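Readers outside the structure-tokenisation community will struggle with the description of the input data as it stands. Showing the layout once, in full, would remove most of the difficulty. For illustration, here is how one protein appears when written out as sequence plus structure tokens:
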Amino acid sequence: MAEPDMTKIPRHIAIIMDGNGRWAAEQGKERSFGHQAGVDTVRCITSECTRLGVKFLTLYTFSTENWSRPQDEISALMGLVLTSLEDEIFMKNNVRFRVVGEMERLPKDVQDKLKETMDHTAKNSAMTMVVALSYSSRWEITKATREIAEEVKAGKLRPEDINEDIVNEHMATNFMPDPDLLIRTGGDLRISNYMLWQIAYSELYFCDTYWPAFREKDLHRAIVSYQNRQRRFGKTEEQVEQESGVKQETEKEKE
């Protein structure tokens, strides 16, 4: 298998970590066993993304819709969040930790641990690992719309001045760039209410591998697929190739 081109590593990778329960079922285990194994994969992929030079890694951990799951599974997941926020995964890799989502819906001890971890890792600089927890795009867009409406109502903003930049400022993800690459594991071919605004021009990669079995080689395969695509952002293929040629010539002149 081809190795990723280290000069073209995506700046921001977002992942829908799917398949924990199905993986556990195939092992004859409870769903909680799959979630625990999924945490081990998070450690593995976080370390590898840091090594590769990825700057932002966003992980879809618990959606707003997941609150409808059985209470015992929710409790197990919340407990897993608490135990998985170890300093080693962040401090060893110089990783900053952030959270996006409705934190106020989470148990108080989970909220406290999340805030503690964010504060403790705030000065880390190699990569930012973002956990989407109690998150959904429709919640985020609704929240942003409400905030903008309040600003208009207060006379701080005119309706005609609302543009994409204004909307971006009110998104929970306003501190980071949009994902370059979105990976979904587990075989399903859908986005599941995840970063719908932000992935407008992201490259999408779907694989059948369940998240607990996802390893460095699988990440490399996704990145190589991304690197073999031409990102046009609405332009023609000829325009992109011409701009790429001009950029390369400029870089050579600087050397």
Q: What stands out?
A: DSSP finds nine helices and six strands in the chain.
